[in-house]
Amino acid sequence: MRFVKDRKGHTKRDAAGKKQKGDMKRSFRKIVEAYGELITNVVQAGRPLEVSDFANDRLVSEFVTKVVNFQKSTLASLPPKYKKYAKFAQRLGKDFSSQENLPVLLMAPYFSVEDPKWVSVNIDLIGRTKKISSDLPTFATIAAPLDRLAASGKRLVEQYKTANPDGFFLWVDDFSGTTEIGSLRVVRNFVRDLATLGKPIVALYGDAYCLVLKHFGLTGFACGICYGEKRSVDQDTDVEGQIPPRYYIAQLKKKIEIETEARRRDPSKFPSLRCPCDVCTRTTNLADLDEAQTREHFMLARSAEVAQLRNGQTAQAMAKELQQSYEEFKNELIFAPVYHLNNWSRLITEP
User: Fold this and answer.
1) Which residue in 167, 294, 286, 166 sits closest to 224, CA to CA?
2) Helix or strand or coil: residue 47?
3) What gap in Å lies between CA 348 and CA 43, rounded to an integer?
């Protein structure tokens, strides 16, 4: 829905402090129409989707076909707003930034399995996707909150095994790698269990904790370019104001805001935190970096971290590196907190 704004662009709120909703955004309306009659009927009725809506074979088939065709056609070209990152879109040394960007796999339609009854719907949608598009691998998406994984993780693995997808996308609702160790352990254990199926596992949203999860079966993750490292399934799309630039400190596996913290927490003053990327070597004051530069730095720093893993960094070596960073900076209040480094190291080394 569209949120009602005042003259200054701020969202209006009612007496209880809740955001005032207006009509549905035009962009959302177009998306609804693109999904076909199944979704359109539900939205027009002003109600949420129910499992019973997927009993109509014709409507479900239309829905899956439209989702598949969207991935094969609409997403096959680089959106204009991402042209500035085209230099990073290379395969085998050849620049594909101005050519058709055909998908290498398909994401089957899916719904959050916070309610277990949606698992059967997701499994059916995976099967339908495989039937109508056998030319590309079909990946299943498991979107679930932490408590669902904690209570039924092994059961979920067995259920999705029956669908026999070619791989998995994992979306843990609003999950962050800086949370407490018990929650980190739940995700680690689920990834390890899912990896027993022998299929690729890619985290849809993830921070540097995904580097640790590589040693438990995670094969890839999408962290966004500085932002989008975690997301709620029912994310509020109403964002006010511009997100300030943030600088990623690879050794500490965390970011700091340039405008408010970089001068006070200048990493360049700490020799072990110096970044050797092209962006950082061209500047003497990290606080002067703009948003584009911090994003480029992040991509280069993250690429170096991934390369380290691909070059054979062992779990033991990673655990030692994380623990050393924790011990070195745990008492540096200007970088606090860094307890996540200790947690990650423990999770790698424990049984």
Assistant:
1) 294
2) coil
3) 46
User: How far is residue 202 from each of residues 123, 153, 272, 285, measured CA to CA in Å?
Assistant: 18, 17, 31, 36
Q: Chain-wide mean pLDDT for the chain?
A: 86
Q: d(Cα 67, Cα 108) in Å, to the nearest integer?
A: 8
**pLDDT tens, position by position, 60-108:** 999 999 999 989 887 777 667 666 666 665 544 545 555 566 788 999 9
Q: Where are the alpha helices (DSSP H) in 113-228?
A: 118-132, 146-161, 181-194, 209-213
Q: Which residue has tokens 């779990």?
A: 315
What confidence tens digit (pLDDT) does each residue in 34-70 have?
A: 899 999 999 889 889 999 999 999 999 999 999 999 8
d(CA 300, CA 272): 17
**Which pTM was predicted?**
0.86
Asked whether 335 and 262 are in contact (CB, 8 A), the reply is: no
Q: Which helix (H) or strand (E) holds 324?
A: helix 315-329
Contact assessment for residue 110 and residue 122, using Cβ atoms and an 8 Å cutoff = yes
Q: Domains in the chain, start-ordered, CATH in brackets?
A: 54-72+104-221 (3.20.20.70), 246-349 (no CATH)
Enclosing H/E stretch for 318: helix 315-329
Identity of residue 150: A
Query: Which of 219, 285, 301 shows the shortest CA–CA distance to 252?
Result: 301
Q: What is the DSSP letter of 250?
A: T
Cβ atoms of 204 and 140 closer than 8 Å:
no
| Residue 138, beta-bridge partner list | 106
- DSSP secondary structure, 262-292, as one string: TTTT-GGGSGGG---SHHHHT-S-GGG--HH
Instruction: Report residue 24 as tokens.
Output: 């549905």
| Tokens 């269990």, located at residue | 193
